[in-house]
Amino acid sequence: MKAFVSGVALLVAAAMLSAPAAAQEAGAIALDPLDPSSAGDPFFGIPSPFIGGHLVPRGHVLFSHAASPLTLSQNGEERAVVGGQSILHIGATFALFDRLQIAAQLPLAVAQSGEGALGAGGATEAIPSGPALGDLRLGARIRLFGEERGVFQIGTGFALHLPTGASDNYMGDGSIRISPQLLLGGRIGERIVWSALGSGMFRSSGNPSTLVYGAGAAVLFWNERLQIGPEIYASTPLQGGSLGITEQTRVEHARATRAEVLLGARGWVFSGLAVGAAGGPGLGEGLGTPSFRVIGTLAWAPRAEDPRVQAKATADSDEDGVLDESDACPYAYGPKHADPKRNGCPVVDGDDDGIPDPEDACPEQGGVASGDPSKNGCPADADGDGVPDSLDACPSESGPAESVGGRPGCPAPPPVVDRDGDGIHDGEDACPGEKGPASTEPSAHGCPKLVRVRGDEVMLLDPVLFRVSTAALPPIEAKSNPVLEELKEVVLQHPEWVKIEVQAHTDNTGNAKYNETLSTARAESVRKWLVDKGIPAERLVVKGYGGSKPIADNATNAGREKNRRVQLLVLQKTP
């Protein structure tokens, strides 16, 4: 990718370095602002980051007619220098690795008409009316981010225009042009596609370079076989000066934007064959802006495989292990069968135990009849532990025949686990991750007296009190040391908490900005206390929330007292 970007930069540099020499010559101009997007792109004039597959060729033929693209005021009258311009664009692309595309496109003027420009001495410079070759465009692009059917994609690329067109037919610039491109696009839901372009057209002739930009959006219909939507593209000169419209005629050129709006439709007739049409007005006063444009296109543009189609090919609706495409009963569970008409269909007695499947509690295992519907048709030893169900105290759980607590066939009880080592096993410990004393209250049994951990939050049951002071960090009252000591021990018991936020909150009394500043200072004081007591400083960050996160009603004294609190939030844990 670095090589790709470097290559684009070198091409831009080469074009710019050659500009001074070329600027001294009177040159012509490629008048038509439409630079069609590549075959397979969703829009007519807006390229996209779309690539679409590996080793996939695409091509198109696009016809464009622009009405009155060049009108000049000469000798006190308006002249339709170019009254109409019909161009045929022939393009091809090649996709690689689902990330890279190379492209080529050649414009051919099939008809041009107009009054022509007035040259030196008032002579009319005639408009070539026959076929005329334009500048060959070569290009490449790469998708940098996003998936083909994702909501957001980013790509970059360039287009290099070679001076293959004649300089007297409004089809050629007479010099190299290069356009580095930033491409955006994607899909919104199942029905909307969009693309956006930011680019520049840098010329090595004396004609001004331009900034090129545009965007388009379309709605998909008929299982994505038809799309309809608008697009707009525009270009603005980067500097003023004179502009060569033929080899003999240059006009003063203001920095006027030329833009066009199109409403287009494109449909896929079958497989990869697509037809499309668009039309719309020109906007702005820039040279080359038509009063109206119509477009028609025929393309070979195979679309990237929809993952939903692939999913359908591997679907198993009834989850019986027989794919729907070969399942004779795709919505009824059944085993595989050599007979295609019975493959995947339910059987009357799948395990051949004499008990019909609707009554068989174990339809895939041979068993015996039972008056208990939950055991009817199941093996006499349902859990397969060697203890007959009639003697098995745990018939659905495998266990040894030796009696365990007077219960043959039952699994051994799980070992006693006490993760926090406080002498209270986890099954009874209300706080199995933090050491605490025994308590007759089940919700406090095995918990610290003043601290509770609930998920990622560490809450203090006693408030942290601060002395009134003008110091940057408000001093903590000595009576708050017990709760902070317990808090320190809880943090030390959890080395997996690698990033912890020390929070301080206030009630809504006073100025909100002051409360935020005050709460930040209090949080910093608690952090310093914990660091001084041995908690690594890099594990702790502070955040003062002021009164923005109340947990009780600020309308009462009791509520405000609850809202004035310190607590911790675990931001990051080791895996």
Automatic annotation (TrEMBL):
Biased amino acid composition, Basic and acidic residues: 417-428
Sorted UniProt keywords: Cell outer membrane, Membrane, Signal
OmpA-like domain residues: 453-574
Pfam family, one: TSP_3
CDD domains, A to Z: OmpA_C-like
Gene3D superfamilies in the record: OmpA-like domain (3.30.1330.60), TSP type-3 repeat (4.10.1080.10)
GO cellular component: cell outer membrane
Annotated protein name in UniProt: Porin
Lineage: Bacteria, Pseudomonadati, Myxococcota, Polyangia, Polyangiales
